[in-house]
Specification:
alpha+beta
């Protein structure tokens, strides 16, 4: 499907289930990007957000073990909380604030249902890698973005951050993509979790 759905609509939810069934795979994670695009109504009204999260629960119940990742924006005046009704945060099992400062991305977990939230922030970066053997319409090598863990290193001028992913780890990720990636009915590339696990086990 190449258009956003209204995830507080039962009819659109049925369309999503049909599209996934047609693609012949069951997802481990569904990404809603962004919350605003998939909500029909006012994000400031709990009466509008409630049916959205009820349908999110139906998605996770249908695909056992799956998760739904919802991308949402912070408020204009308060960058520490999600925009809209307080019922949004209340409905989440996990809430993570993502802040980008140059090459550094800080992930701060401030809610973890049934468990304690992480006491320390996680620092990551984004790196672009070529996908060997894949080319675009102009013959240029296709690239994908991967998340890189970063370590905090103080220096004379303040704070600096260093990538901790080795070249071998980069090559290993590329090999996984080359050996496990599949294309669904819409042309998007994805990696089945089971295929990734089998590949890693076979390669030691």
């Amino acid at each position: 499907m190449q258009y956003p759905l209204s995830l507080n609509s039962d009819a659109d939810l049925a369309s999503l289930f049909q599209a996934i069934s047609t693609a012949r795979f069951e997802p481990d994670i569904i990404c809603v990007d962004t919350f605003y695009r998939y909500l029909e109504g006012d994000e400031n009204q709990a009466s509008d957000t409630r049916p959205f999260f009820e349908n999110i629960t139906k998605i996770m119940q249908r695909y056992e073990g799956s998760s739904v990742l919802i991308i949402h924006h912070t408020g204009v005046g308060d960058k520490t909380r999600a925009r809209g009704s307080t019922s949004i945060r209340a409905a989440l099992e996990v809430n993570i604030l993502c802040e980008k400062d140059g090459p550094k991305i800080t992930l701060h977990q401030d809610k973890m249902k049934d468990f304690e939230a992480l006491s320390e922030d996680t620092l990551v970066g984004i790196s672009s890698v070529e996908v060997h053997g894949w080319f675009d319409d102009d013959g240029e090598a296709e690239k994908t973005a991967i998340i890189i863990p970063m370590e905090k290193e103080p220096d004379e001028t303040g704070e600096s951050y260093e990538e901790t992913l080795t070249e071998n780890e980069r090559l290993s990720f590329r090999d996984v993509v080359m050996n496990c990636a599949k294309t669904d009915a819409t042309g998007r590339v994805w990696i089945p979790k089971e295929s990734w696990q089998r590949y890693l086990k076979a390669s030691g």
